[in-house]
Amino acid sequence: MKLKQKAGNIIVYSILILLLIYWLFPLFIAILNSFKTNGELLTNVLSLPKELQFENYFRTFEKMNYARSLMNTVIVASIGVSLMILFSAMAGWRLARTKTKLSTFIFGLFVFSMLVPFSSIMIPLYKTMLMFNINNSLIGLGLVYVGLGVSMAIFLYHGFVKSIPKEIEESALMDGCRPFQIFIYIIFPLLKPVTVTVCITNVLWIWNDFLLPLIALSKNEKYTLLLSTNTLFGQYSSDWSAILSALILAAIPVIVFYAIFQKSILKGISEGATKG
Amino acid sequence: MFSKQKENRILLVYVLPALIAYLLFKLYPAILGFYYSLTDWNGIDQSYEMIGLANFKEIFADVYFWKSIQFTLKYVVVILVVSNVLALLLAVLIESRMKARGLFRTLFYMPNMISMIIGGYMWVFIFTRVIYYLADKSGLAFLDQSWIGDPRYSFIAIIIVSSWGTVGYLMLIYMAALQGVPLQLKEAAVLDGANSWNVFRNVTFPMIQHAFTICIFWSLSSAFQVFDVIYALTGGGPGRATQSVAMNIYEEAFKGNIRYGYATAKSTILFVIVFLLTLAQLKIMKRKEQEL
Amino acid sequence: MMSFPQFMDQWETYADQFEKKMMDEENLKVKVNLEMPSSDQYESILQARLSGNDAPDLFTLHSNNISTYNKAGHLTDLSNEPFTEKLFENVKKTITHDGKILVVPIESQAWGVLYNKKIFNELNLKAPETLDELEKITETLKQNGYTPFLLAYQEQWVPQLMTALTLGGKVSGEVPDWVERMYAGDGSYEEMRDIFGPIDLIMKNGTERAMELGSELGAADFANGKAAMFVQGTWASGTIMQTNPDMELGVFPLPINNNKADTLVNLSTSTTLAVHPDSKVKDVALKFANYVLDDNDSSTLFESTRFNPIATIHNYETDPWVTDAYQYVEEGRSYQDLVLPQAVTEEQGKLLQEYYVGSVTKDEFIKRMDEVFAGAVK
Lengths: 276, 292, 378
Hints:
heterotrimer, A: mainly alpha, MetI-like fold, 13 helices, globular, B: mainly alpha, 75% helix
């Protein structure tokens, strides 16, 4: 029995480690080669770099306007996600609590378009942004993400609110609390697990979204990280060492974010998905 | 507690901010998009005409559109199976061991954090430079293929990369579900003399049915709109050999004859297909869940 | 908004110079915002901007698309701008529509097949005049251990160059009314079957993994001597010379058959710059358009990007391969690039990719192209 278990352990761990190698291989290779000169890279992709070419990184860091692009992305993501959370928590709560035809209708309206492909709204959406003069505006782009993301978020909040006993609110109301106070002091804290999920999934989505910023932002000084990386691809398309170092630079913030918050991220994702 | 009317009023106050953003940036563009599908607008001219359902009629005879649907279906089926099997396998393996559980989970989820544009480029490098080199040096002749250039192999490459990008997410959901299976149940089954496969088949599996519904729903709706991965790897080529529906729509809207109206008609059809499929899937799986 | 991501540095410098010049000469504070999406996204972004009435003040476009954009009202008539005086006559001809000049030409070239002169000289080979000669060269190269052709087909516009050259040569040499008849609906690609002569030869004797190689990486490979010939325009010389400054580059026209009259270089203007009529700062935009061909500064820009001289003010010494190509032009052995609908050009590229991997036959190619042409001019 013991022996069998040991053998089982070895098999399981070897499968996992093999898969892990495959999983991390692209990242590893990209990092390895980003420190080489282009010539070195072309002769041998698997060797260790002869000496670390930080030069690649300095060059791409400057070319991408890294600090500025990073800041822009942070602005868009934080505006988008914070408003999305506030708006959809409010809406999700009331929608779940109100049992009227209007409520069902509005909820249906939100959920209905969750599957509309982005390609069909891209140009009309861009036209709408122009109408309000919020193209080339980071705040405006954040607002657009709110509009695009609330459906899913409301769906999640709506589902979760149903599991909170109604009595809590009712007794607070008896005590003379106003609805908004109830929301802020009682409901919103209770919704925290969903809030974490909504926050994480949407930060990732906005952070990694490409097509919308590509169309909405035409001024270089407003470029997000991914857009700056993309511009660099065009400029250095024959120079893999530059491209790879740009890829790594673009991936670093997400990986740091992940390293810091991984516990809540993993928890948030799995909980959010099972609740929804 | 309140009258219906008052309740509705309160509701509106709370829903309004979300509703405004949603109406402006999602629903209105979606409706406008549908409106364009009834026109012959090319996307750059100032004027266009209403042509009714002519676009939709034309789609029926559009060979390339149906080819791309066919390709997408093939992709959906394969990625659905591959990524779910792989995710479940990982979840079961990781959950069954005590050591380094957190570490494995963290590392396997990592690719999900990275944009597919970024990850796609890394893989392009692997397929065009590294594998070639490996095949050369190690004599692994089977690796020596045109991985992203030959349609026979590029399909495999696409599956490899997109499962790399999606398995982590599915794995987390399965893991959460597995943690919900009570240990006593499994132990009882073992005492009854069931082997580990039987335990999984008869005890665990029914308990994680809900996770299946979610994972399949999610894979289905996202796989149908696949764009990034293919765009980064093959660009849909050679020719149109690996063109997905989303890419076919993109091409119609922005390349060649530039027919924006016609392209939105196609995406309306895509929407209807995805909508019906996911609806059917949810219905079927919900019924199954209840049966168990 | 421009489609020159690979020349970002040069254009940035040029834009700075323009800003400074405006400040110095007219005390005008100008800020040039350069948007340079990668070339495969360029058109979709431009289209989104134009459709949303958010047009860039200036934008680049391929000269073949001038009439489409003009019809949609997105081009300003530049006929009376000072720069037009400076243009070479043969360049001016390529961008004149209905007697009007609607764009500033930027890239204009005579082009055909690029070849590595070092390899050719070593084996005592001369630029071919007929398809038979090209075949002989191919054989000799193979016998001596060289790969004859570099194939980089990942981006569809690169294989498409082969149709541009072969159709152009054949049409200009033998069937001058073919394009006209195609537009009118009574021509066929069947008449052009010859084009597969050189296409087959090239595809059969090229480097491997063509579908994985983009144009820029292909140019770098060519510069490193991976193959002796490359069907690519002289616009690739920037990357080539940067990768290998000692490269000896030559240009010859691609033979289509054994009729020497069909062996011609392609004379075309590809990228041009347009001013949008609705620009809010049209004065400045027009000034920039003129500044592209500035008497003092333009030569440096054109030289650093390795664009060919297109105007009388360009006084830098041209590269030897450019001289090579224009040799043919002077001998009268050139033709104007054919103006085909955008959809047709793109379809040719796609079908050639498929033809290369073997999923489309010659007959299917011909049939499909006839359909697409008919659909595009409907």
